[in-house]
Amino acid sequence: MKTNRKKLRLGIIYTLLIIFSIIFALPFYWLVSTSLKTDPQIFVFPPIWIPNPIDWGNYPEALTYIPFLLYLRNTLIVVIFVVVGSLLSCSLVAYGLSKIKWPGRDLLFFIALSTMMLPYQVIMIPIFIIFKNLGWVNSFKPLTVPAFFGSAFFIFLLRQFFMSIPIELSNAAKIDGCSEFRIYSSIILPLAKPALATVGLFSFMSSWNDFLGPLVYISNPNKYTISLGLAMYRSQYSSQWAMLMAASTVVVLPIIILFFFTQRTFIQGIALTGLKG
Question: Which pTM does this prediction carry?
Answer without folding.
Answer: 0.83
